[in-house]
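ok trying this again, last paste got cut off
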Amino acid sequence: MAGVRTINIAILAMGGEGGGVLADWIVDMAEHSGYLAQTTSVPGVAQRTGATIYYVELFPEDAARNCGKDPVMALMPVPGEVDVVIASELMEAGRAITRGLVTPDRTTLIASTNRVYSMAEKTAMADGRVDASTLLKAGKDAARTFIGFDFARLAEENRSVISATLLGALAASGALPFIRKQFEEAIKSSGISVESSLKAFAAGLDAAGSSAPLEVAPAAPSVPRLGPALQELGARITAQFPAASHPIVTAGIERLADYQDVSYAAEYLDKLIPIKDLDRQFGHGDCTLLRETARYLALWMSYEDAIRVADLKTRRTRFERVQQEAHATSKQVLEIHEFLYPRVEEFADIMPAALGARILKSRWMQSLVNRFAGKGKILKTTSLAGFLQLYWVASLRPRRRRTLRFKREIAQIDQWLAHVKELVPVNYDLACEVAECPRLVKGYGETHERGSRNFELLMQALPVLRQQKNAASQLKSLREAALADDTGEKLAAALRELGLQQGARA
């Protein structure tokens, strides 16, 4: 067997993406083309900390026959010894690179450029997403040949799974000694969704063979198209707000009308008018203050409460999306179970203000709520009983303005806007940084409490901070420290370093 070696292929795919099917197609094609083939799989552990690795080795049957021995094939990929790496998602391609499976002298890397965010990215206090351009550059630098495309989107467009489009990319790469017809015969012989798989295979082959750039250019902000109910507010935005702010302000009224109602969206514009006037008078002409205030005001005014969660979970579009993502057919029964762990505070938040405050002060009322929901509840929203329970909570939306949480949030929003307006004539850059501080206030439960606490610390530090020459950069560094961990230790250390701990306690 001197001079003849195995062809080694590693496939990294997550559950439901057909990684095993892709490996089977390759094995079937190889065995019908005069090759010995072996496939193994190593499952990933925990949620999104790693995909299953399907490993395939191929060896020419003629070479084995000539020497009278069968080749010994490996059960797992070995760094530096892999010819083809196929990744169903961009981060998985990055994982393969860090493991040493991709080498510039040998490996063809085929990666779908779509992202499925890991738990570490989702739970980060700030924007924890890994930069896609960094992953793309790493792929180009690490591999002999790099083929990157959004094969997941391509599969969806062709009503198939990503394994079919990735097989097409493999055929286009020329990394295997097989022709297109042999790839297609492997799909046909499987007998599973042959027509859609062949269509997706052809799309993947064409996409991989194109010379389109890998980089995904950031989409230019566009003004959302408003429905009839929001046309009047849209006209108001056009008449009263500068063009540079139209995309974000229009998105704001659309979000808030969906969250509450049209009049709530109008209140949003009312709050922005003084900011717009101050920005025009003291700004640099790029509407930075107006745009950032509009962004975080819309997010804060659409805070997450039990009413909002119930509303989103009972929408028809949500059931349709889950059915589509689960690839459930009309002949299959789909069940959706909601795991809910409401706290006393979340019950009190959606009560009328007086009753909600009383609940938080009364031990026996708190124990009553805990007896009902302290151990959590599991609701099946695909059942009538489960759906109606959440639908009833969602129906409280018209009464949201009377709730304890609404009155508290609006009071805090108005106080924040007062800080911004007060600072603009004195220190425009500092006002812009204050406008971004509600970035800390997000989520619900303990996450919301921590964020709100950090936000208050920054607001309490403002009287001392505004006396500093570099107040804007200092506030920015404090905000980044608050987003760096969920314990508050880095923020406390940053406050001490800047000598602001006394002001923070004021």
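PB: full thing came through this time. Strands lie at 7-13, 35-42, 52-60, 84-87, 108-112, 145-149, 337-340, 377-380.
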